[in-house]
Amino acid sequence: MSQKEGTKEGALETLTHDAQEVMTEVVSAAFQLRTYRLLRKILLGFIFVSVANVLFAYFFYTPKMYRINRENRELVVQYRILQDRLRAAQRKVDEIRHRDEQVYRSLFSVDPAQSDAPSREIVNSPRYEELAADNYAPLMIETWQQVDQLTSTLYDESRSFDELQTLARNKEQMSAAIPAIWPIDRSKLHNNHIGAFNPRRMHPILRRIAPHNGVDFGCDRGTPVYATGDAVVEVALASGYNGGFGLQILLNHEFGYKTRYAHLSKVLVHQGDSVVRGQKIGEVGSTGRSTAPHLHYEVLHRGIPVNPINYFNRNMTNEEYERLMQTMRDTNFE
Questions:
Q1: What is the pLDDT of residue 206?
Q2: Which of 27-41, 102-116, 146-160 shows the highest mean pLDDT?
Q3: Confidence check: pLDDT of 195 > 80
């Protein structure tokens, strides 16, 4: 083979190789182009489907949304039914409370039970704040407030009936213990002069508003003072100023009742003594912050001063009681 023929063959091989590379590149470019177009179509299709789905969901309910809305409507109906049942239960409990206060407690001559859960605490409970951001917050909060109110009322009534059960077991003892008579002989009063129970009384000595948590009986020094119910002497102070009360006696009648006898001239009992209704325990005086002889008499129920006159009507007619209430007035004894 001549040199010229060899050169031609080499050129031919080179040309063939270049053609193959060009063909490969052309095929590769075409494949990439088809792939790009396919991916573009898929992406555009996905975007179109997504937008269509959003628009459809905005203007039309999907089966899932229909189901969710149906469940929400059913929950609202159930809440409304629950509220109706709670209101019916609350009315029943209120009827029981009314009988408790107006019938049962009247039989035992005791004051209405004190609630441990005021309504304002239920209404302003911080745990309702968790529900505030929900679309159905007003409905849920109102329902839970009804539940809490009913629970509170039931708790108070349970405590009240526990107390009444105790009173029923100890009725005879309680009847003798609760303050129920006058602490002095009514005939010893000066012109039937009784100083009124007044939480907003102008104090005649201090010259400022100061509660008068008892009643004052104007009478002579040395007038006998009697225990108004069976009790144990809790305090018997036979000397000293004692916060303005002077010589005083505090009796514990149990069942939540205590009585105070202040401004005495003599104390005839000692701490820890047991006394019975009608027993002489002291004598009227004018000790402590006092301007004239008188007996300051208090009745406390569960630590709260109550009007003692409400406990005198056991041995008074309604007419006598009304006349007494009309004649009572503030006094300048203390």
A1: 56
A2: 146-160
A3: no
Q: Which residue reads 């309910």 in tokens?
A: 61
Average pLDDT, the chain: 79
SS3 assignment for the chain: CCHHHHHHHHHHHHHHHHHHHHHHHHHHHHHHHHHHHHHHHHHHHHHHHHHHHHHHHHHCCCHHHHHHHHHHHHHHHHHHHHHHHHHHHHHHHHHHHHHHHHHHHHHHCCCCCCCCCCHHHHHCCHHHHHHCCCCCHHHHHHHHHHHHHHHHHHHHHHHHHHHHHHHHHCHHHHHHHCCCCCCCCHHHCCCCCEECCECCCECCCCCCECCECCEEEECCCCCEEECCCCEEEEEEECCCCHHHCCEEEEEEEECCEEEEEEEEEEECCCCCCEECCCCEEEEEECCCCCCCCEEEEEEEECCEEECHHHHCHHHCCHHHHHHHHHHCECCCCC
Residue of 232, 191, 218, 192 lying closest to 297 (CA atoms): 218
The answer to whether 264 touches 249, Cβ cutoff 8 Å, is: yes
Question: Residue 269 is encoded by which pair of tokens?
Answer: 């009992």
Q: Domains of the chain: which residue ranges?
A: 63-169, 177-327
CB 208 within 8 A of CB 202: yes
Q: Give the pLDDT band (50/70/90) at residue 120.
A: very low
Ramachandran angles phi, psi of 204, nearest 5°? -70, -20
More reliable by pLDDT, 310 or 236: 236
Q: What is the largest CA-CA distance in the chain?
A: 166
**Quick one: tokens of 98?**
């009314």
Nearest to 262 by CA among 251, 247, 275: 247
CATH code for residues 177-327: 2.70.70.10
Q: Are 247 and 260 in contact (CB under 8 A)?
A: no
